[in-house]
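The material for today's practical consists of a large collection of protein records. There is nothing in a record beyond a sequence line and a structure line. As an example, a complete record with its sequence and its structure tokens follows:
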Amino acid sequence: MKQNYTAKKILSSKLAIFCLLIIFILLASVIVKNLNQQKNNTEKAFELENEIFVLEKQNQELSQLIDFFSETEFVEKQAREKLGLAKPGEKLVIIPEQKQENTKTQKNKSMPELWFEYFFQ
């Protein structure tokens, strides 16, 4: 009976209640911290999965570009247009570009002068 009375006295004392409250607060803070960390990890994993998807798509596009640029038709076209090369037996024709008037001089001219130049030059 004395042992039962001592247990009731300890549990009903203010010090015991205070200690239990401190332990409860510590446990609750640890649980909340773990939940927040788990939420942050889930969000980060989702962001990384999205980034992986975007990078895989870019990688696929770059692979297609590499395939396109390594084709012989593309290489021949670039050699013709930029380097002026031709296949054996073909003749190269170069058409000179027409020079355009400077737009600054056209802006300084009046409208009748521009019409005159259009019809009589």
Notes: The chain has a mean pLDDT of 84.
